[in-house]
Amino acid sequence: MAAPSKDDPSSVVSMINQSPPVDCSKPYDTSTLAGKTILITGGASGFGAAFARHWARYGAHLIIGDVNDRVGEELVAELRSSPSTTPNQLITYQHCDVTSWADQVALFKTAASASPTRTIDAVVAGAGIVERGDPLTPSATSPVFDLPHNLDSDTPPPPPPLKVLAVNLTGVMYTTHLALYYLPLNTAPHGDRHLLLISSIAGICPLPGQTEYTTSKHAVMGLFRALRGTAWTTKRIRVNALTPYFVDTPLLPKAGLALLAGAAKAELEDVVDAGTRLMADEGVRGRALCVGPKMRVVDDEGGEGGVRVVEGEGEGREGERRQAVWEVYGHDYERVETFVWRYLFVLNVMRGIKGWVGFLRDLWGILFGGRGRG
Ligand SMILES: NC(=O)c1ccc[n+]([C@@H]2O[C@H](COP(=O)([O-])OP(=O)(O)OC[C@H]3O[C@@H](n4cnc5c(N)ncnc54)[C@H](O)[C@@H]3O)[C@@H](O)[C@H]2O)c1
């Protein structure tokens, strides 16, 4: 069976309801953030805290989970005392180690019960760590994945700690699994169901010396790319992702910052802007945005919406603008192989049948006084 092209109405892109490429040069409406209940893991610091500060200003309800309790509580106190926060705005912090299933369940339960709408509109899987072992002097207390180490050379090394995988992958899988359960419980007419995954430039490029981190972030991209194929069809959940380049947050080890000295980094405000666009624009589904250093670009002459990076000195040429955000992995589902097409086709048919069964049951209830779906 030949896989259809994207212009075909039976194409996989339309089957999974992936939205068109995100045009970051266009404004977006932040008013949709008001009243949204958003759960953020790793929200005490860095991106999560910056999202929380920004979204609180627009009236979102926030449930922040983190292991850094002091910083998390301070952030919540700051947001609650901000003049833009209203008294009925929920802003709360709860200890949550994302590697603990029980902690994450407790966080989701708190979010659902404390939310003024008793539902969760959006989840940000933000918690993450990097490897901090010293490659020059690996030791039992400072292990480095790439350098198996043992003081006694006759015995094999101890198992690698894999802490980064536990936080960045197991933790994100736990968050995702709970989001897939809790978000569909949101049946409010204007409710959203949004899962925002935070990968990294290390999810699309190798980051030597950060093998575990690179592995975990590639895995998050695998999670995103597979899940966007089914999450909307089965549960009306929009799944999007961010893959930022280096940004100066407490995540970056001093050695990493030193290596980046003088080089362009991405800006926190651009990450916040890209994340806010995905959060606020409920029409965006199945899209991943890479946030990098701002580059000078001009529109491509081909007229197909592409841009060309402007090199060299002499800023300010006609039509030139600055761009920090780029779409990645946008074309996965435009041409797929037979298994993917057939699987998603069957899933779509099943959803259609389920919809008809529900409709007929409701109709039966109305006509003959039995119970509908309720
Ligand atoms: N800063 C960057 O350059 C950069 C680039 C790309 C992607 N990222 C990703 O963005 C996310 C946020 O990173 P950041 O830069 O804001 O770093 P950050 O260190 O400021 O924030 C990460 C947060 O996660 C929390 N955390 C760590 N382990 C946890 C656990 N077990 N359970 C719950 N919370 C835990 C930390 O306490 C911290 O508050 C991470 O997933 C990171 O990998 C960061």
Automatic annotation (TrEMBL):
<dbReference type="Pfam" id="PF00106">
    <property type="entry name" value="adh_short"/>
</dbReference>
<comment type="similarity">
    <text>Belongs to the short-chain dehydrogenases/reductases (SDR) family.</text>
</comment>
<dbReference type="InterPro" id="IPR057326">
    <property type="entry name" value="KR_dom"/>
</dbReference>
<keyword id="KW-0560">Oxidoreductase</keyword>
<keyword id="KW-0521">NADP</keyword>
<feature type="domain" description="Ketoreductase">
    <location>
        <begin position="36"/>
        <end position="245"/>
    </location>
</feature>
<dbReference type="GO" id="GO:0016491">
    <property type="term" value="F:oxidoreductase activity"/>
</dbReference>
<dbReference type="InterPro" id="IPR002347">
    <property type="entry name" value="SDR_fam"/>
</dbReference>
<protein>
    <recommendedName>
        <fullName>Ketoreductase domain-containing protein</fullName>
    </recommendedName>
</protein>
<dbReference type="InterPro" id="IPR020904">
    <property type="entry name" value="Sc_DH/Rdtase_CS"/>
</dbReference>
<dbReference type="InterPro" id="IPR036291">
    <property type="entry name" value="NAD(P)-bd_dom_sf"/>
</dbReference>
